[in-house]
Amino acid sequence: MKNIIIKTELLCKSFISDGEVNNVIKNMDLEIYEGDFTVIMGSSGSGKSTLLYNLSGMDSVTTGKVFFDGDDITRMKEKEMAKLRKDKLGFVFQGINLIPNLNVYENILSPTYKTKTDRSEIEKKIDILLEKMELTSQRKKFPNQMSGGQKQKVAICRALINSPKVLFADEPTGSLNSSQGQSVLDTFTNINKEGQSVVMVTHDLKAALRGNRIIYIKDGRIDGDLNLDEYDEKSVLQREEIVYKFLKERGW
Ligand SMILES: Nc1ncnc2c1ncn2[C@@H]1O[C@H](COP(=O)(O)OP(=O)(O)OP(=O)(O)O)[C@@H](O)[C@H]1O
Ligand SMILES: [Mg+2]
User: Fold this and answer.
1) Mutation test of ligand 1: which of 14, 44, 49 has the most ligand atoms closer than 8 Å to its C-beta?
2) Which end of the chain is more exposed for a tag (fewer CB within 10 A), N or C?
3) How many domains, the chain?
4) Whole-number Å distance between alpha carbons of 182 and 186
């Protein structure tokens, strides 16, 4: 039996724009399991990013509950929520902003301020992350001196520096070329193997194959939930076929 790390109950998220109510997430009951690499897919505008913001406490729900490790985060005070985010969660979001007046190294270091981890350990970890992401030569650069893909990779290092219990990633490979994308996904696979949970939104079939569960969102509801653990014995090609069929059946 897997532990539930995140659970929603009748989660609803609506936006009001031009006086019209837009119900984006509709009465969603969802359980995310600890140690899983969960992939969220669905067409553009189906509510994937909105869901990720709600699951991670980055935005407040309209109605319903979200539990993290058994605690209802919708009832948490901002200070408590901020501590949870900093200690246990990591984020790589679409269009995430690095801090413009900090260089690469300082940006990655920023979530570690006030944490108890030993300074030299953190420095060692940053060096390893920079090396893995091929950013070692960029460590002194500022965000406005780098490409979109490089900035994305810095954001990934920053999300990983505190070894979050859950890493949330929204289209993490979107602005990367194929080999850069592979190395980011390899990093995610590795941290997942070490026990960290990953929740990743992607439009990409190859990226989705990194997951052991694929949730398909359609119009703010769960339209499909594919457990790939059952297919562990199958070849990569067979798994790809299973995922492809699952997606095609849902209009992907
Ligand atoms: N802050 C906001 N204010 C108003 N409407 C919003 C806001 N954020 C999202 N929406 C609306 O919610 C719907 C879902 O948006 P969301 O960003 O969750 O989609 P998505 O599935 O992530 O799409 P994509 O694949 O293009 O990233 C869209 O109709 C969008 O216009
Ligand atoms: Mg999105």
Assistant:
1) 49
2) N
3) 1
4) 6
